[in-house]
Specification:
Length: about 270
Amino acid sequence: MHNAYEFHINNSPLIVMTPHSGRNYSNRFLKYITLDLKDLRNTEDFFIDQLFFPCSNNFSYLYATFPRIFVDANRSPLEIDKSMWENNNLDKLFDASSIKVLNGIGVFAKYNLFGEYIYSSKVPFSEAKWRLLNFYFPYHRKIKEIIKKTKKKYEKIIALDCHSMSSELVSSETDIVISNVNNKSSSPDILNLVKKCFKNYSYNTNINNPFKGGFITSYYGKPKNNIHFLQIEVNKSLYMDEKNLSLKKSNFSKLKDCFENLFKDILFYLNYKQ
C-alpha cells in the first residue's frame, strides 16, 4: 500500500474511486493547524469507501488515504492560493483566479466546511510542494495507470468518482447528485443507467446540479475514446448522523445494496456493449 492510496486492479471494465475518503491526519500536517481535529473532519467523505465492500471483487478501485483538507486530489494542481504560503515564487502558471481558489477550497483548502480558517499562520511553500509530490501526483499517476491497464483489455470502460456531501450544501429533497460535466465526461445513456438504479431505490436524484463534476471527472472523462467518467455525490444525512459522525446502519445497508446493484447493472451494460 502506498501512503497516498489503496488500490486493486481487477479484470473488469468498471473502476471506482473515492478521492475524499482519506482520514490519515499526520502530525506533520496538524502542527500547522489552528482548529481541533473534529473541525477538520467535517470535510471528509465519511464511510464512502466502505460502501463498496464486499463487492469490490467486481471492479478495480482506488481510495485516497490522505484527507482532502491536507491536499485535494479533485482539484487542478494549479489551483493554489498564493496568500497561504510563505517563501513562494508562484507565477502566472498558477490559477489564483479560479472560483475554487477564491472560495478557499483550492488544491490546498484555506477554510473548513463552516468557513473557519484552518492554518495558524502562513506555511512554508516547501510543505505545499512536498504534499503535491508525495500524495497528489502519486494518486493521479495511479488513476492513469488503472485507466491504461483497463483500456488495454476493454474497448469501453466506466469510472465512478464517488463522494458524499454535507446536507447543508443541498436541499433536504436531494439524496444523490450524478454529474458528467453536462455530458462531456460520459455519454447520456450511461448517466441515465446510473440514474435509473438510484430511482429504483426511491432516492431523489439531481443531474449536474448543483455539482457538474470535479477535476477528476472533467480531466479523465473522454467519451469519444470510450472512457466514461461520472461523479456521484451522496447526501450524508441519508446514511449517517453528521453531528456525532456515526452510521445509521439500516440506511447504510440500503445504500450499500443500491450500489451493489448499480455495479451489476453497469457491468451487464458494459459486457453487452463490448
